[in-house]
From TrEMBL:
Basic and acidic residues: bias regions: 40-54
Protein name: Uncharacterized protein
UniProt keyword annotation of Signal present: yes
Source taxonomy: Bacteria, Bacillati, Bacillota, Bacilli, Bacillales
Chain spans, region Disordered: 27-54, 294-313
Polar residues composition bias: residue spans: 27-39
Keywords: Signal
Amino acid sequence: MKFLKTMLYLSSLVLLTSLLYGCNTSGTDSPKNTYSGQEQAKDRSGDSEGEKIQEETYIPNEEDVIFKNNKMRNKERLDEFVKTAGDNNESQIRVVKYEEHGAIIYDLKSRYDENAGVGWVRVSPDLSYYHTAEDEVQDVFNNAPQQCANISKDTAEGYYKLHECRTNWEYRLLPIVSGTLSKEDLENSNQENEESEVIEGHYYYLDDITTEIFLSKKDAEEWQQYYEENDQENIEEATLNNIAKGLENRVDLDRIISNEVLVTSCEAGVCEIYTEHSFEFKAFAVPEVKIKKDTGTGESEEQPQKNAKTDKDSFLREVNTLTGGILDYSSELINLYASGVSGPEYSHSAKSLYDKVNGRVNILRHTLVPEDERTENQYSQLLMTAEFLFNSLHQGQLYLENGREKELEILVEEEVIPLREELEELAASVKGP
């Protein structure tokens, strides 16, 4: 719907933008330095000639809107600016966004032309306190002052957005977060501690508003790559594609977000999570930045502890039988997908094989595990891989039922086969009696 609306209003908005350019002059709209941001200079050793490099660190003011470590300070000032910007007023705020390589500062000013009856938002990016990495992709939005039609708080996608700017039709300024950044957080945020890291095997809550909950690890890893590159266009496209997949697979994001999830592993900014609060699917991949790190706990607040016990031999026999069935039936399903045969009988055979995989994954979920750390870790890895394989096969069935052969072919090659091979390796490492 968002893309359709964009196309419908495109022609009229181009005319509006032209009008705004005519009304704006550098003399009347150049930013005044009403903020008294302080600077600290630190001397460090320079090159072989002994030169000294001055490294500047921005010290924010009390009124600055600050985003750091997935928390925000003075969020109410930003919300108020969103409500009034461009509406016959000339309010202004400063937004400080801390990232890995420093702080990016945005001076936002509401502007209004009484003669034309038109308002807009002037954005002045400042990279003075940001140190660009050698291989970093430049964000064109930050290269020069911007003139945007308006600013919004998009709760559906979870971002504060600037619209119809000079370089971007839509720009995600900041994510909407629930965490509040205190003075102590700001002062101590440069110190590494356990609370700033996601711990595998702990339970967490996800951000209140997030759509980046992926059925596919591959999709999550692509999103994370775009996030690290600050590639806003591809971030948005990946997010919208994931929303579409979630709707297609009937994923209930609200139930997942409203309850704790178990983080089973994290690597390169992407965490695998397990939830009991999703009917069809249990395993998902989420960007680490979408996890509320201050909610971590070693024990579940919701799930009762299992008192039933089992011996290791019985466990291994059951697990080997279940994984053997999943591997066999998924292999048959892959061959069926690759055969190119079509028709009702073909679809019925594929559905039958898919159901057999589904049933065995479901039993694997409820398998009792002996109290042995090594065995518990093996089971966790095995289950999560089986879950992601099931997720991919479910997506494959949707492609098959809707005649999307090319997408099915890519899915099998890039996800189903690698996941099956991973499960096969894990199963081989679990030896039964």
